[in-house]
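Quality-control log, excerpt.
Job 1 of 2 completed; input and output follow.
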Amino acid sequence: MKAISLEKKAIPSKMPDALLQWYYPNHRDLPWRHDTKPYHVWVSEIMLQQTRVEAVKGYYARFLEALPDISALANCEDDKLMKLWEGLGYYSRVRNLKKSAQTIMNDYQGTFPQTYDEIRKLSGIGDYTAGAICSICFGLPVPAVDGNVLRVMARVQEDFRNILDNDFKKDVIRQLEKVYPTVNDCGNLTQAMIEIGAMVCVPNGMPHCEECPLNSFCMAHQNGSVALLPVRERKVKRKFENKTVFVLQCGDRIAIQKRPSKGLLAGLWELPNVENFLTPEQAIQQCSEWNVKPKELLKIVNRRHVFTHITWEMQGVFLECAEPDNRFIWAEPSELESIYSLPTAFRCILSE
């Protein structure tokens, strides 16, 4: 047992050389890797949270075209900002981007801070993002530990602890903090750690162990336990909510309204909705109470949208209305595309 423990402890020090030799010729050509400007790395890292790489590429290009620097982000109108983010979800991310940009303009004269502690204090930046910016942009010996890194470490060390436990993450960070100061290329080591998890030691399906530069000392590979790792045990129970969502049509226009300033999808636009499923008669009565004078029930559709801890089961009720009521904004289809940011949770109601 003591020999196994020593073998595990030795693994992190073996990883940098193997990873970097693999990374230089094999990494993906991603737009946010074309430079190490802190603003670019920061925006990309925030976008990549909970979002696929392929989906981010287009958003990243459009975002930087519209908001090329920290000053532009800090001064961007909220509706324009939400429209740029529309479809990426987790809208608190972009609110925190703007808030942090304003902090950088006010407290750092528009220059991105260059120490871990200062970066970590910015709104919306956690340990991982701070570590990524520090190592990639400034070459500081600070690890960036995300789900990819946790999965790789669980497998190479054949560690059966729950990778979602904070103690496991802290242990991985402590191990890598000892390794990073020994490396000359901290930025690319961070990229390599993430890349190997995304492309080789993959989260879904069997990892590509035959292609992995770590396979000569990966304990899970050697002991045939790769398929059993990592251990992921979530403790949060998912909540389900039923909603009736109204597509109120008056000519070509559709009724929308602003969500409350706090809570899920705070401050974004939404289709009018109420809790629980209504019968057609109840839905028509609700519209009458809103003074939109429903003329015809056009159709009812069923949709589901999954958030991190909540699932919305939605019944979409399409109604033609005789006249608009000023409690709502009545938006034309072109305005929904160009002006108003309607989250995917509601756009999926409109899709056929």
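Job 2 of 2 completed; input and output follow.
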Amino acid sequence: MKVLVSSTFDYSESEFNEVLFLLNSVPGAINFVNGGSVNENILQIISPDYMSDSPLTFEGFWSLINNYRILNKIDSADYVTLLTPKRNRPNWFSAFQGKNIFVDTNDWDFYTKKESKYGVAFSVVENLLQTLMNLNIKSLGSEPNIHRQTTGCINDLCQKKEDIMFKLRDCYICESCKNRIKKEKIAVPVILHLIHLMEYFRKQMVDNFSWLTEMEIDHVKVDSNGVLKIGDVTVEMGEQNKSIYFLFLITPEGIPTQNLDVHRDVLSRLYYRLKHPENQVKVSESVLEKERNINRSTVQESKMKEVKGAVKLLTENKRFREEKSKINRKIKEALGLKMSELYMIHNLNENDLKVYKVKIEQDNIFIDGKFIL
């Protein structure tokens, strides 16, 4: 069974790759293939309504995917899943029609309190199961296996979007739905693969480790050369990524997701100090004063202009999410999957405000004064 996983041009490439990696983390009967991104010019032709500010109807999505199939000569036996930040009417997480599926990539981190890649990948799998079960999403009232009351079954409707975590945490198939699967005669290797994938995602998402932050954990250390160490492990990343991570280390309250540009000046100075250490001497009040009057030399003015240009791009939401993913991936590579959760940049909901934050107590952070701005 072949499933082409595609995306629209406005979905982060790094997040798309992470979702595809998750889908291929468990081998089985289903082959998840990179179907590529639908670029903006193509979308303007095959789905003009996509470019408007209004949500796209289900019919609009089915037309888009069908035209994409024709354009790319996709076999009618193959499934196509489209990952997109385009809102839909009536604002569902996802939907399916036959072998066409779309998944709304927005807000998964908000509702699940986990990285959005898990929710998106889970949604791909549940839609495959639901379309194989021949569920009728056009007639919710008469479809017995779409549950209006949230119970934790994979086929819960979750009209209240915050209920989605019950489904993701429990990840079970109720007796009625098991009987429906038997009735539809879904191939056993396929259903086994889908179940194993859902169980894998559930284990990744269920948090059994956050309580460890209450115990003594490895300290985060940044020396005067900008070397980042967690415990005895050096975490390698470029100056841009380091400047972003250092910003969160010195901002313990976190940064509202819509206020990234407010911190542009501090981020610029962090990036400047990492990228041009040759211009740094012992930090003193006079040096800081000279940095505030950067016009003291044509060379430094040019360098700071370059830095500010790069930082302006970094604080744009889409680009920032890509950089956040890179940072978290570097930390994961250095520390391993579970330990890295303690040190990553997370998207949290605090007092009804969405914030980016590193959930480390300040007592566990030791950063050289050169980077405390």
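Post-run check on job 2. Confidence is low (pLDDT under 50) at residues 281-288.
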